Amino acid sequence: MSTLEIKDLQVSVETEDGPKEILKGVTLTINSGETHAIMGPNGSGKSTLAYSIAGHPKYSITGGTVTLDGEDVLEMSVDERAKAGLFLAMQYPVEVPGVSVANFLRTAKTALDGEAPKLRTWVKDVNGAMNKMHLDPSFSQRSVNEGFSGGEKKRHEIAQLDILDPAFALLDEIDSGLDIDALKVVSDGINDFRAREAKSVLLITHYTRILRYVKPDRVHVFVAGRIAESGGPELAEELEANGYEKYTTAGV
Amino acid sequence: MTAAVQEALELDKVESHLHPEGSFDVEAHEVPKGREEIWRFTPLKRLKGIHDSAPFADGATKVEVEAAAGVTVETVAADADVRGTSGLVPTDRVSARAWAASTGATVVRVPTDTVVEGATIIRHQGTGSETAGAGHAVIVAEKFAKATVVLVFEGSAVVADNIEIVVEDGADLTVVSVQDWADDAVHLSTQHAKVGRDATLKHVSVSFGGDVVRHDFSAEYAGPGGSVESLGLYFADEGQHIEHRLFVDHTAPKTKSNVVYKGALQGEKAHAVWIGNVLIRKEAEGIETYEENRNLILTDGAWADSVPNLEIETGEIEGAGHASAIGRFDDEQLFYLQSRGISETEAKRLVVHGFFNDLIRHIGVPELEEKLTSTVEAELAKNINTLITKDNA
Ligand SMILES: Nc1ncnc2c1ncn2[C@@H]1O[C@H](COP(=O)(O)OP(=O)(O)OP(=O)(O)O)[C@@H](O)[C@H]1O
Ligand SMILES: [Mg+2]
């Protein structure tokens, strides 16, 4: 079970000229097993929403609530949120020099499960996840994201999704920088995850392209720190045809 | 070409305050007061007088030798000819005093064409810090020899020493100096290498323990084509002063140097100093040099000084560069790791291991790798409380 409830979330960042409000009251409920897509123009606050849910220290929550199955997410530390079932695939995955992917994954899995993974199945699982994402097994020995191409970083995020198996996946522009083949590989990975029991996905994207492969239950248009409109999958098609213009001119 | 460079090209002798003319005469070196360029970072008050006139006596450390097959290790008298063959001439009072006071020298010799498996380990066990000891060692890799020599310093002691390294033509030598001293140790070491034609030296300095540890490593080239890799790893704890002064003197054409020092600092008044001097002489055409120092400050109250310095007397070089950084934990890295369920403390541990990992692997001495990784672990464990307290602050 994993129902994520975001109510009237307001978030600001510290800037040189003082705090700047970015999220201006976001309300959104994602029920267990649902996939929601958030679409919006550059700078509308999509990543801010994802980071705020995951607990990045840069963002201050100035109002509203976020709960996961009733538990107050905003009270939790970053790693506690992961342990509660949240996973954030980042728009720009971070490089961690000198820490091998293998070590990173094993440490994360151990932290999430409270015990070290069984050695025998573990290596197979990791190699399997890498394979599915068309990443050579040698990636396990490389430093986390260091020297990975943009597409490899994204595929590595989905390999982690597969291995760490959270309840709730926040995918921030997982499709950006992917060519069509890689997009299919990544979409297959997301769909494999969705096929598991009671998994929820919040898919943040700028383009409708990925929604051809990953079918959302709901689509939200995100503009200037708010949800401007919500609808079914047909809303994505409308955006594809007309763009964000209607919202940006009216909304701001 | 600037006028200054033009003028420098006219000079055979290099005038620079960073690498003065040396002398074996102790009295030619004034007692440092602390304002001198070469002493300005060193806490003289904590040197137990070895920079002044404190007496030296034998027996400050017990020495144990594990020689690899093919390597000879012997003790020779202070007046043996081998002393001085590296070209070491003391450039400060401590080095000059240690030279004058040492009653003998340990000579490690790798004969011509001998390729040695495994490391030769010379362990210095401190016997207490009441009296100071003066040490001298000469490590010689004869023509086309290949070997690894590890010097280990442990226990309590006050030591000033001169370590000479001679890498003859075509030889390939690795020298590792591990300062794993007890908390009260004082160690001032002057290490100088002469690198022959087409010879390779990898010099590694690893400093964990000790109250004051200052290592001056310098290298010069006896012919073209020589290569020096100078690596350093240090971990300064509360109150500790760890100082490294490097000087690569490119005295021959087509020579190479690559200096990489990395350190982590934690605790109140942990202080690390790194001075990286590289001189490219007029005759050193076609050389390549790079030096880098990175410091990771783990807690408040620790600080690092990092000063790279490049003096170039010829424009005809392949490449010269340097980098120096003093930083704290990267929030984005910690967030990324934590977002995968890893606790903040564990995330910091991973980042520190990562910071050192490449360097440790680069040292290329299997006997040491595990030990270094576990020592980094032990150092982190010491301060894990501080890291956690900071987390919750
Ligand atoms: N530290 C900061 N100082 C000032 N403005 C900031 C800061 N951090 C974020 N912002 C602003 O907040 C807004 C929202 O940024 P965010 O990254 O959430 O947008 P986004 O919708 O994810 O955009 P994109 O489609 O480009 O990924 C942007 O206008 C951005 O410039
Ligand atoms: Mg974004």
Automatic annotation (TrEMBL), chain A:
Keyword annotations of the record: ATP-binding, Nucleotide-binding
Domain ABC transporter: residue ranges: 4-249
InterPro entries attached to this UniProt entry: AAA+_ATPase, ABC_transporter-like_ATP-bd, FeS-cluster_ATPase_SufC, P-loop_NTPase
An annotated Gene Ontology molecular function: ATP binding
Pfam family, one: ABC_tran
Keyword Chaperone attributed: no
Superkingdom as given in the UniProt entry: Bacteria
SUPFAM superfamilies per the UniProt record, alphabetical: P-loop containing nucleoside triphosphate hydrolases
Family, per entry: Belongs to the ABC transporter superfamily. Ycf16 family.
The protein's name: ABC transporter ATP-binding protein
TrEMBL record, chain B:
UniProt-listed InterPro entries: Fe-S_cluster_assembly_SufBD (IPR055346), SUF_FeS_clus_asmbl_SufBD_core (IPR000825), SUF_FeS_clus_asmbl_SufBD_sf (IPR037284), SUF_FeS_clus_asmbl_SufD (IPR011542)
Xref: SUPFAM superfamilies: Stabilizer of iron transporter SufD
Signal peptide extent: none
Domain named SUF system FeS cluster assembly SufBD core: residues: 128-355
Pfam families in the cross-refs: SUFBD_core
Family to which this protein belongs: Belongs to the iron-sulfur cluster assembly SufBD family.
UniProt-recorded name of the protein: Fe-S cluster assembly protein SufD
Gene name linked to the record: sufD
